[in-house]
């Protein structure tokens, strides 16, 4: 069995990415078969539990308050609403629910307590629970772990160099620090990125270096294709080709053999044949539901038809790791500390983000 290597260099990863396609597919598919069942793909559901109004300036994101997009903001969902959606997701084949809140970072208080209750509730439904809530402290990571969180998502988005051209309100090290805080618990790490934001191939390789040299490597790596949304700074980016997505998935599979590689945003632009090639290249998860947070996604019935056509089975929960125990709030060892950590605010200027912000002000 191929071993997991933690010292990949950018040159090595570039060489893999640029391998002739048939050879690249063969290598990636061979490694995939050593570590995973090639006929099983996890279906996950992404729920936006608090939409819009985010103070950050991520250039790709329609939820940033400063841009003018068609996204309607929503307050935090109730536990009952989340439970109803999770049950619906489970009945249509999802084994994992990822809850996303448009926050810069988690703040201790009633809203975080409500999220912890959502985690307990979904854990009891015997589904893997993942959260993506922005930056978190070590104590907050422990509180999520105690509630029964299975995974925490915190994407690196791109290479460290290109990150500075997309986001100015926080630094790459903040991302790594949050991942480090999650690693101090038994919660698994989900971290990936977006291609098609105008980055070059070196940046894609740089992101894979940053992810694959983490030890342990993330258990889950979502690979997104940018969905360019009107009103955001990246609204004019041209869609990437399917070949770029296949190469990215195959390279991620080779450098992170045990990781669950997730085919994420941008699937509506992909043909069925293209998606099938991504599965062959090592992608073994998709997000189901007609929306991915706020951007379009294929309908569940279309996905199930695709699974049937390809002979794929939805993956059961807790195949890779046991279901975490969930401790009730009253028996919890970790309490809110009311911390106010100093996450960085590099605040360098990104021209296109500034322009989108000014345009947004005029239109609002
Ligand atoms: S990606 Fe997340 S942090 Fe960035 S603006 Fe959107 S919701 Fe906020």
Automatic annotation (TrEMBL):
**EC number(s) reported in the record:** 2.8.1.6
Cite the entry's keywords alphabetically.
2Fe-2S, 4Fe-4S, Biotin biosynthesis, Iron, Iron-sulfur, Metal-binding, S-adenosyl-L-methionine, Transferase
Q: What class of enzyme is it?
A: transferase
In which residues is [4Fe-4S] cluster bound?
Answer: 54, 58, 61
Pathway given in the UniProt record: Cofactor biosynthesis; biotin biosynthesis; biotin from 7,8-diaminononanoate: step 2/2
UniProt lists compositionally biased (Basic and acidic residues) regions at: 339-358
Span list, region Disordered = 329-364
Q: How is the cofactor bound?
A: Binds 1 [2Fe-2S] cluster. The cluster is coordinated with 3 cysteines and 1 arginine.
Instruction: List each coiled-coil range.
Output: none
* GO MF terms held by the record: 2 iron, 2 sulfur cluster binding; 4 iron, 4 sulfur cluster binding; biotin synthase activity; iron ion binding
Q: Catalysed reaction(s)?
A: (4R,5S)-dethiobiotin + (sulfur carrier)-SH + 2 reduced [2Fe-2S]-[ferredoxin] + 2 S-adenosyl-L-methionine = (sulfur carrier)-H + biotin + 2 5'-deoxyadenosine + 2 L-methionine + 2 oxidized [2Fe-2S]-[ferredoxin]
Q: Which residues bind [2Fe-2S] cluster?
A: 98, 130, 190, 262
Which cofactors does this protein require?
[2Fe-2S] cluster; [4Fe-4S] cluster
Question: What is one GO biological process annotated to this record?
Answer: biotin biosynthetic process
Q: A Pfam family name for this chain? A: Radical_SAM
InterPro entries in UniProt: Aldolase_TIM, BATS_dom, Biotin_synth/BioAB, Biotin_synthase, Elp3/MiaA/NifB-like_rSAM, rSAM, rSAM_sf
Q: Is Iron among this UniProt entry's keywords?
A: yes
Family per similarity comment = Belongs to the radical SAM superfamily. Biotin synthase family.
The protein's job, in short, is: Catalyzes the conversion of dethiobiotin (DTB) to biotin by the insertion of a sulfur atom into dethiobiotin via a radical-based mechanism.
What binding partners and quaternary form does the record give?
A: Homodimer.
Task: List the PANTHER family.
Answer: BIOTIN SYNTHASE (PTHR22976), BIOTIN SYNTHASE, MITOCHONDRIAL (PTHR22976:SF2)
Q: How is this protein named in the record?
A: Biotin synthase
